[in-house]
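Input (structure):
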């Protein structure tokens, strides 16, 4: 009994020492998380309950900022509408486009690495540089896009000066960065066992059947990841809108949510109001992400497939 007690004491001391060593190892990350993420989030929430112009001391107003946002702020509703419309168009187009390009670049052909680099490079270019390039492409007179439309006998479009075309211009521009999703899809496609395709071909399955019954289920975790990241990214558009439509575009047709948040914070110096907008955006993104996770029964993992077998 004495030896058993000594053994338990020794194990408890060893476990305590290992726990201390583990906490010491994560201490730099933990300190950075508290100082740079958790702390600013708590401060932002507290500021959202005040009126603060960054010059005078904050004045506590409770939930007044939130009440004003939901009941008496047309630009909040417009910015949310614009951002949701943009996400509903750009997200499926971007995911389908990046998957299609990834499947083409997954072919075993000579020089394919060069083409993969060409399609991926636009996704890592600086946002400001890309936006300036698209300002030139979308110019009403002499712009590349209208020049190409002329070959199809389509009249030029006032892309950024017409409320009907401003937001579609941003959607078209978003397709420029499909290389980021493409490289992730490509990794998922290359992890699909070739034996599955060979067995399907022996059974007489066609290209569409193989894509539907093998490719899509096997890369569903990759699709799920790109979907979540795409939803988050589409609700955080700022750089392009700030440069191409700093005032929100004609009739606020390109007033993205984060641009409106920026205007409230640094143009009108309503930092408490902007913090409330930031927390509303956080709740919206969190809700959409949770909905995606709750409805992710279509995602198949390899471990689950093995258990089913």
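Output (sequence):
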């Amino acid at each position: 009994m004495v030896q058993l007690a000594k053994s338990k004491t020794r194990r408890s001391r060893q476990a305590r020492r290992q726990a201390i060593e583990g906490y010491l190892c994560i201490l730099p990350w933990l300190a950075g998380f508290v100082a740079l993420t958790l702390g600013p989030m708590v401060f932002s929430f507290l500021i959202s309950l005040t009126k603060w112009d960054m010059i005078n001391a904050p004045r506590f107003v409770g939930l007044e900022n939130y009440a004003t946002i939901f009941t008496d702020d047309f630009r909040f509703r417009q910015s949310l509408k614009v951002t949701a419309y943009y996400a509903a168009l750009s997200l499926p187009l971007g995911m389908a486009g990046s998957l299609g390009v990834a499947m083409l670049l997954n072919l075993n052909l000579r020089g394919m690495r060069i083409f993969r680099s060409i399609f991926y490079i636009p996704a890592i270019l600086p946002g400001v540089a890309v936006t300036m390039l698209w300002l030139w492409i979308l110019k009403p007179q002499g712009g590349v896009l209208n020049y190409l439309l002329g070959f199809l006998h389509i009249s030029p479009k006032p892309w950024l000066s017409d409320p009907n075309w401003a937001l579609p211009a941003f959607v078209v521009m978003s397709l420029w960065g499909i290389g980021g999703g493409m490289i992730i899809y490509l990794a998922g496609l290359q992890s699909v066992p070739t034996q599955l395709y060979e067995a399907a071909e022996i059974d007489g399955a066609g290209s569409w059947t193989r894509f539907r019954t093998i490719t899509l289920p096997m890369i569903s975790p990759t699709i799920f990841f790109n979907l979540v990241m795409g939803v988050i990214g589409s609700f955080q558009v700022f750089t392009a809108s700030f440069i191409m439509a700093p005032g929100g575009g004609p009739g606020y047709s390109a007033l993205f949510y984060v641009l409106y948040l920026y205007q409230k914070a640094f143009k009108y110096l309503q930092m408490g109001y902007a913090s409330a907008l930031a927390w509303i955006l956080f709740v919206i993104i969190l809700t959409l992400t949770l909905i995606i996770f709750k409805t992710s029964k279509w995602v198949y993992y390899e471990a689950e497939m093995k258990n089913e077998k």
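Notes: The chain is about 70% helix and 0% strand. Residues 305-309 have pLDDT under 50 and may be disordered.
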